[in-house]
Amino acid sequence: MHQTSHTTLWLICLFAFTSLIVGGCNANRSPDTAPASLTPTDTSAAAVASDTPGPTGTPTIDPESRLASTSEPDVDAIPLLATRQAQVDAALQADPPVLRLDDAGLDPEQQRAQMLALQSTDFLRYVYTQDDHTPLRTEIFAVYPARESDITPATTACSQHTCYRVELYNYAFNLTSTAMVDLDVGDDASAVLEVTHLSDAQPEAPAHLA
C-alpha cells in the first residue's frame, strides 16, 4: 500500500513537470498568420483610387510633329498644277464645257470621233446641272477603237465599220458617259450609235493624269 502511494505521487509530479515544459514552449510561439488567399482585400472606392496611377503632367506638343497645313496649295508655285488649273477653268467656259483630249496626242480618226461625240446631246446630258444649267467639270478620258465587247444590237454596224469608243468622266456626279461613234456614217450626231451613262464609275485615267 505504501509502495502504491509513492508510485502515484511520482506520476503526478511527472505529469505536472511535462505540462510546465509544454506550456512554456507554446508561450514562445508567434501567432499563425492567415493564408494570403484568405486575407481580406479593401475594395472601397478610396482604396481603388489610391492604386490608380495619376497624371504625370500635361503633355506638350512637339512643334516638329504638327499636322501639315490644310490651306489650299499655291497653284502658281507649281507650274504643272497651274497649267492644269488653267485648262479646267477654260473648259468650264467652253461650249460644251468639256475638257477635251489634246489633238496633238490623237490621230485623225480619234480627233474626229471626239468631235462627233461632243455633238451628241445625249452624250452631253450631264455636263450641266439640271436646274440652273451650271457647267460641271467633265473631261474626255479616252478615245480608242471599238472592241468586240462593244458590239451590241445598237452597234452591230461596228463589226464592219470603223467605230470608236469615247469616254467622258463627270467629276461632279462620279459618272462615266460612253459614246460609240461610227466614222463611216457621217459628220454629225447621227454618227453616235449608242450612249451609255454609268453611275459611280471611273474610266481608266489617261496617261497625263496617271
Q: Helicity level, as a percent range? A: 25-40%
User: For the report, how would you describe the main beta sheet?
Assistant: 4 strands, antiparallel
Based on DSSP secondary structure assignment, what is the total number of beta strands? 4
Number of helices: 4
Rg, rounded, reads 47 Å
Note the beta-strand portion.
Answer: 15-25%
Which secondary-structure class do the elements indicate? alpha+beta
Q: What is the 3D form?
A: globular
Order of helices and strands: HHHHEEEE
The largest sheet has its strands arranged as 1-2-3-4
Average pLDDT works out at: 77
What is the terminal separation in angstroms? Answer: 128 Å
Which ranges are low-confidence, i.e. pLDDT below 50, for 5 or more consecutive residues?
20-70
